Amino acid sequence: MIDIKKNGWCPFYNKAFLAKDGYLLRITPNKSSLSYDKAVNLCELSLSMGNGLLDITNRGNIQIRGIKKPNIEKLSKELLKKEITIENDKVKIIISPFWVKNDDNIKFSNIFISQNSYIPISPDKFSIAIDLGASPVLRDVLSDIRLEKTDKGEKILYVDGSKLGRIINEENIVSYITELIKLYNHCISKYKHIKKMSCIVKYDLLPKKWMQIPILKSSRRKFPNLKKFGSSYTSKYGRIDAALFLDFLKTSKPTNIRFTPFKSFIFENNNNVEHSSFTSVDNNYELKVYSCPGSNSCSSSSINTHELADRLSYLRYNKIHISGCKKGCALSKPADLTLVGNNGLIDVIFNGKASDKPNISSLTDKQLLENL
Fold first, then answer.
1. Number of compact structural domains in the chain
2. 41 with 124, same domain?
3. In-domain check, residue 309
4. How far, CA to CA in Å, does 160 sit from each of 25, 131, 203, 217, 262?
5. Whole-structure pTM value
C-alpha cells in the first residue's frame, strides 16, 4: 500500500508526494550508486510512468517526477523489484560519493544497513553523513550527525553544529548512534524550539561526553582527484531529462553511475565521453548557483527559479541560492546572495538562508536587477 500526502513528509519509493507537476517518488540507491542496467531501468520507468524528469537532490537521492496516480503502486513495486532503491530508509545515510571498495565509508555504511533493525526510529528528515575521506566534503550538506576523521586519522562522531565530537569504532558506532537518536527524540518531544540536532548544540542540551575531541578544521571543501573515480558531469540545477540521460548512458556505457549531493553524477569507466546536455567536471564540484524546481514543478513556489537562475548567473557572487519559498530545499546553508519567492515577488537576503529575514522585500524582476 502506497502512502500519499501533499506536504509534511519526505517522499520515498513507497511514499508519494503530490507536487504541481504530478506525484513524485524519491529513491535512495544503495551507496548512491546504480549499475548501468539499473540506471537504464530508472530512465525507462521515468519515461513510461512519469513525465520523464528526474531530480538529483541535495543529499544525492533521485526524485522521479510527474507520476500519474494510477501508476504510483506499479512504479513503486518495479523500483524495489529491480533493486533501484533500498527498501528501508529508517536510517537515512548520506555517504561521500568518493568512496572506494572496502574503505571506511563502505564499512560503516554496511554496518548501518545490517544493524538497521536495532536503531530507533527517527523523524523523516533525520540523517547521518558518512564522510570518511582524508578531508570532509559533506559539511555543506544538511545532516544531523556526522562521521568524519580527525587530523590523526581517528574516526569521530559529532552532532551538526558542534566543533567537538567523540572517537568511535566499528564496535560501538551503533550504540552511540542509538543514544544520539534517543536524545534527539526526547528533545523534540519536550522542547518546541528544537527542530534539528544542531538546535541541541545551540541551546546547550548536548551532554559533555559528546564534546571531547576537536573535529578537523576545514575552511573549504577539498575534493579528491575526480578522475580517480571516473568521468564527472553536472546536471543543471540537479534536473535530468530521462530521455537525454538514457541516450548518454547508451552512448558511453559506464559500468556504474554514482549520484552526488552536488547536483552531479559520476560515470565509472566511460573514457570521458562528451554529451551536449551535461557539463563535464575536471577537478571541482563547487556550485555557484543553487535552484529548486520552481513554480513549474512545485506548488509552494511562486517564481520560476530556473529562469531567474539563468538570468542571474553572471553576478559576481561566489554562491547564489534561488528558492521558490522560504523552505530553501536547494540549499540549507547560507549563501552570499539568496533570492526567495514571495507571492510572485522576490525577497533578497545577503549572507543568509532562505528562512532568514529579508534585507530587501517584495521586488519585481525589474526592481531586483536594479538592486543587484
1. 3
2. no
3. yes
4. 27, 13, 13, 14, 19
5. 0.90
In a domain, 160, yes or no: yes
Instruction: Supply the range of the domain harboring residue 53.
Output: 3-87+231-281
Regarding whether 249 and 178 lie in a shared domain, the answer is no
- The DSSP code sequence of 93-154 is EEE-TT--TTSHHHHHHHHHHHTGGGSPP--TT-EEEE--SSS---TTS--SEEEEE-TTS-
- Residues 74 and 106 both lie in one domain: no
Q: Are both 269 and 305 inside the same structural domain? A: no
For residues 103 and 208, state if they share a domain: yes
Do 262 and 337 belong together in one domain? Answer: no
Q: Going residue by residue through the chain, which has 372 residues, state the pLDDT in tens, using 9 for 90 and above.
A: 566 665 556 788 888 989 989 999 999 999 999 999 999 999 999 999 999 999 999 899 999 999 999 999 999 999 999 999 998 777 789 999 999 999 999 999 999 988 888 888 887 788 999 999 989 999 989 899 999 999 999 999 999 999 999 999 999 999 999 999 999 999 999 999 998 999 999 999 999 999 999 999 876 678 888 888 999 999 888 999 999 999 999 999 999 999 999 999 999 986 778 888 898 887 666 778 889 888 888 888 999 999 998 888 788 888 899 999 998 888 888 999 999 999 999 999 999 999 999 999 999 988 988 877
Helix (H), strand (E) at residue 307: helix 305-312
- Is there a domain that residue 345 lies in? yes
Does 200 map to a domain? Answer: yes
Angle at 51 between CA 49 and CA 57, to 5 degrees: 100
Residue 84 in grid coordinates = 533501484
